[in-house]
Design goal:
The structure holds two protein chains of two kinds. Chain A is α/β, with parallel strands linked by helices. Helices cover 45% and strands 13% of the residues of chain A. Chain A has 15 helices and twelve strands. In chain A, strands 1-2-6-5-4-3-7-8-9 form a nine-stranded mixed β-sheet, sandwiched between helices. A three-stranded antiparallel β-sheet of chain A has the order 10-12-11, sandwiched between helices. In chain A, helix 6 packs parallel to helix 7. The two termini of chain A are 44 Å apart. In chain B, the strands form six sheets. Chain B has a five-stranded parallel β-sheet with strand order 11-14-17-10-18. By secondary structure, chain B is an alpha/beta fold. In chain B, 48% of the residues are buried. Chain B has helices at residues 39-42, 44-54, 81-91, 121-130, 143-146, 160-168, 200-212, 226-236, 242-255, 278-282, 293-296, 312-316, 319-324, 367-375, 379-383, 394-400, 408-425, 439-445, 450-463, 467-483, 491-499, 502-506, and strands at 2-11, 14-25, 30-34, 63-69, 103-105, 108-109, 115-116, 135-139, 153-157, 216-219, 269-270, 283-284, 290-291, 301-304, 326-331, 334-339, 343-348, 387-390. The chains are: A alpha/beta, B alpha/beta. Chain A binds chain B through residues 122-123, 151-152, 180, 182, 260, 316-318, 321, 328-330, 332-337, 339-342, 346-351, and chain B through 198, 200-201, 204, 350, 356-359, 362, 366-368, 371, 390, 392-393, 396, 400, 455, 458-459, 462, 480, 491-493, 495-496, 498-499, 502, 505.
Chain lengths: 355, 507
């Protein structure tokens, strides 16, 4: 991929100088073009009051730095997209402080696809995870799913979308880092199937504030955001609030009253977010219809137990058995059949619900 | 004159004959012991000297040499005292005319001439009988234990003088009468399933586990009756047969934990604390190798309460015995194999705070904490636990406790019926339960219908099962089918077996 002179200047400014975001924006404003900034760096940098040790004053050195950085990216099979590029996601420009450069690894073409963001906090009940996986799988057939890399809600979104490859994960750290470290294999899967994005340079580890900053990119990239789970204080809620600021659609999964991990979701719905219980609620807003659900081949007792679950929601095994008129171990066999067929899901404490 | 007396040393669970040779010569009075005796054996010098004197016998003031043969095995403990004393008496011609050939002398001497009981008597008797010895003189304190060995003359003696009188024929000791083995001769435990409220899932899992000899893991909030359920396990297990009882007694005898009855009549229920070391769990020791908890649980239950609290290395050490039913302990002194065919029953909380999945209390653990907690139990170990059940919160129990609870006896009847089916199935193959089946037996006795195979295939894919987990699910399904008196493993049996692998779903 060839970079224009302006783009190279952008990359040099972002990757090879020790300036911060504000200084970079100020420099780009004063210079007539990024290329000019690169050529006459000393003039503009000193005018902006940036000390000499933060950049290379020698032009040849700058050239070498830019060249070296491009080689560095190539070596890691990564790419960089600047704000000037046609590939830069249009919607992200509307975000506050849009990243000047995005580093990516994987399917570059996803940058320009239609995107939908699915997030959830790390503590997500099993039924919500299961629902999240199903929704994500459906949406990934029509749009690209955008999410993070944490456990819980993010993982559910990844699980659903990674099969189709229409998946972008935005990291809160450099592309060669992994947070949480345990998800290194998940990260590798996403890289193979979809796209990893980060605004942070290589080697940058996750800091407390980087999650906040990453969430603005999640919201900025997508046309809408689905919150699978969120307590009253959670990162998923921050993403949803960013999305509201940028005028995106916000969806939330409804929860029982008093369930801590869903208080944020219910709060969003109270404040006017769309209530989503399946992929069709989301897709229909964008004028798309979900693919037909595959009818499962169930026998009589399986159909009966599923009916009971559909009617009453999450239920204890003993209660299900009583209602279905089955012995406990018979009911548990039927439920494990439903589980294997993917229509029921077990939560903790011998309780089951529909997925 | 040279005297030769037979006694026995313990080598693991086997008795090894040791010849005590005594030579009393003219010369400067001295008293030497050769042939690899350890300190306790050497100390027998002084015990024997006092015991002889206090029993009104003469300690020869000559040059005395005592040799233990064969010399290459290490002799330990005080069980040679009696043999040393008798050989001294014989060599100094104080037992003139007495027949001491082919008699095995066992016992520790007190200074006043009393005989003290020794550890590991029963295994010694069994080995000695196998070596062709049929006459034994043992301490009276070991008489209970020795009663069960049929086909041998066993004379229990309380003092050294009794032994001497018996040998000289002046006052004979009555031989022991062989006792009949009666299961549950001791006091029975008060545990019974009828006292366990609710927990239908766990009760069912317990029944399957015992019926097929499978291992089980109970996960649930604290105080919900996990330990109580586990204590009921021996009450639903089939009664001990005499052969089993003898084998278990051998181990308990060597470890010195035998009760008053002299034979084990109840299936062992061992609950080592989570601070147990690997050595105490598996067996070991400096010179004499002692059986560990897993061997003491042979034929019964090893209950590990709060499984994640045990040291990782201790738990990992269980993997091989869980597969093989025995443990081989290697030490500088030799390699010993102890039987360790036990049923593993473990309990744990679902998370560090214990409330994950609880209906009343909220769990305050982060996903990372829960994962770390569960990771303490390795996948390979979890793989070997066929039945994993969640034990419900006690609040839930209160709602359903008005039902009449089934007693251990009723469950035991079903278990024994299922065991009978298994006995007929595996007749002559040395296998007793479904859990012991190998690949060959699985292929032969656990044919799945095409539907059952399909179920297992989709479970295998969805739950990311290992090959071993698949084999174990089939074995559990076989046991469930046996409990159902079903020749064929039906889909519902497979489904139920799959439902007991909760950790594969969560992980």
């Amino acid at each position: 991929m060839a970079y224009s002179k302006d783009e190279r200047a952008y990359l040099w400014l972002c990757a090879c100088t020790r300036t911060d975001y504000r200084e970079r924006v100020a420099l780009l404003r004063t210079a007539p073009s990024p290329a000019a900034l690169f050529e006459e760096a000393e003039e503009y940098f000193s005018a902006a009051g940036i000390p000499r040790e933060k950049y290379s004053a020698d032009r040849a050195a700058r050239e070498a730095e830019a060249e070296g950085f491009l080689a560095f990216l190539e070596e890691r099979e990564a790419f960089a997209v600047t704000l000037l590029s046609d590939e830069y996601p249009e919607s992200l420009k509307a975000a506050s402080l849009p990243p000047l450069v995005l580093y990516g690894k994987g399917r570059r073409e996803l940058l320009t696809a239609r995107k939908f963001c699915i997030v959830g906090s790390r503590i997500t009940p099993p039924w919500a995870e299961k629902t999240g996986v199903a929704i994500s799988r459906e949406i990934a057939k029509r749009m690209t799913v955008v999410t993070g890399l944490a456990e819980g809600g993010d993982l559910a979104a990844i699980e659903g979308a990674v099969g189709s490859g229409n998946l972008i994960c935005v990291l809160p750290c450099g592309l060669d880092e992994c947070y949480p470290a345990a998800h290194i294999s998940v990260k590798a899967r996403v890289e193979r199937a979809g796209l990893l994005l980060s605004e942070l340079p290589f080697g940058e580890t996750a800091k407390k504030y980087s999650f906040h900053a990453r969430n603005r990119i999640l919201a900025g990239l997508a046309e809408g955001v689905l919150v699978l789970s969120a307590a009253m204080r959670s990162g998923a809620l921050i993403t949803a609030n960013c999305a509201l600021d940028y005028g995106r659609d916000v969806f939330a999964l409804p929860y029982n009253v008093g369930v801590m991990s869903g208080e944020g979701c219910n709060d969003l719905i109270k404040k006017g977010a769309y209530l989503a219980t399946g992929a069709e609620d989301i897709l229909s807003l964008y004028g798309m219809a979900p693919a037909e659900a595959v009818p499962a081949d169930l026998n009589d007792s399986e159909r009966q137990v599923l009916g009971i679950l559909r009617e009453s929601g999450e239920m204890h095994l003993a209660e299900i058995a009583k209602r279905a008129g089955l012995l406990i171990h018979e009911a548990s066999a039927v439920l494990s059949a439903l589980e294997i067929k993917g229509v029921a899901v077990k939560s903790g404490g011998n309780k089951y619900s529909v997925s | 004159m040279i005297a030769k007396i037979i006694c026995y040393a313990l080598n693991g669970l086997e008795g090894v004959p040791v010849e005590v040779e005594t030579d009393v010569n003219k010369g400067v009075p001295s008293y030497d012991m050769v042939g690899l005796p350890d300190t306790a054996v050497k100390e027998s010098k002084e015990r024997v000297r006092s015991a002889l004197k206090n029993s009104g016998l003469l300690f020869p003031m000559n040059r005395i040499t005592i040799n233990f043969a064969p010399a290459d095995i290490k002799k330990e403990g005080a069980s040679f005292d009696l043999a040393v004393a008798i050989s001294l008496l014989k060599a100094s011609e104080q037992l003139f005319g007495a027949d001491v050939k082919d008699t095995v002398f066992l016992g520790e001497l007190a200074l006043n001439g009393d005989l003290r009981p020794i550890a590991g008597l029963l295994p010694i008797l069994i080995s000695a009988k196998g070596h062709g010895f049929s006459r034994f003189i043992i301490p009276a304190g070991n008489a209970q234990e020795a009663r069960f060995l049929g086909g041998a003359e066993i004379y229990p003696a309380a003092t050294l003088s009794e032994v001497v009188d018996h040998l000289l024929g002046s006052s004979l000791i009555e031989p022991l009468e062989t006792a009949m083995f009666v299961p549950h001769a001791g006091t029975r435990t008060s545990a019974d399933l009828k006292f366990v409220k609710g927990q239908p899932m766990a009760r069912r899992a317990l029944e399957i586990a015992v019926a097929g000899g499978h291992n089980m893991l109970m996960s649930g909030p604290p105080g919900t009756g996990k330990t109580m359920l586990a204590r009921c396990l021996p009450t639903v297990m089939p009664d001990l047969t005499f052969e089993e009882a003898l084998e278990i007694t051998k181990i308990h005898s060597v470890a010195g934990v035998l009760g008053e009855e002299g034979i084990v009549t109840e299936r062992p229920f061992r609950t080592p604390h989570h601070t147990a070391t690997t050595v105490s769990m598996c067996g070991g020791g400096n010179k004499v190798v002692h059986p560990g908890e897993i061997s003491l649980a042979h034929g019964g239950v090893l209950f590990l309460d709060e499984l994640p609290e045990y040291k990782r290395s201790t738990l990992e050490a269980l993997r091989q015995p869980l597969e093989d039913g025995k443990i081989t302990v290697s030490r500088a002194g030799g390699t010993f194999t102890f039987p360790a065919n036990f049923m593993l029953c473990a309990s744990m909380n679902p998370c560090p705070c214990g409330n994950y999945g609880s209906s009343k209390r909220t769990c305050s653990c982060t996903p990372a904490e829960i994962r770390r907690y569960r990771k303490k139990i390795s996948g390979p170990l979890l793989d070997r636990i066929d039945l994993q059940v969640e034990v419900d919160d006690i609040e839930y129990d209160d709602l359903t406790s008005d039902e009449e609870q089934e007693s251990s006896e009723a469950v035991k009847a079903r278990v024994e019926a299922a065991r009978r089916i298994q006995r007929n199935r595996f007749e002559g193959s040395g296998i007793l339960t479904n859990a012991e089946m190998g690949e060959k037996e699985i292929a032969e006795y656990c044919k799945l219908t095409r539907e059952g195979d399909e179920i297992l295939r989709s479970a295998f894919d969805r739950m990311h099962l290992s090959a071993r987990a698949r084999a174990r699910i089939i074995k559990v399904a076989r046991t469930i089918a046996d409990l159902d008196y079903s020749e064929e493993i039906q889909p519902k049996h497979v489904f139920e077996a799959v439902s007991y692998r909760i950790f594969d779903k969560i992980g």
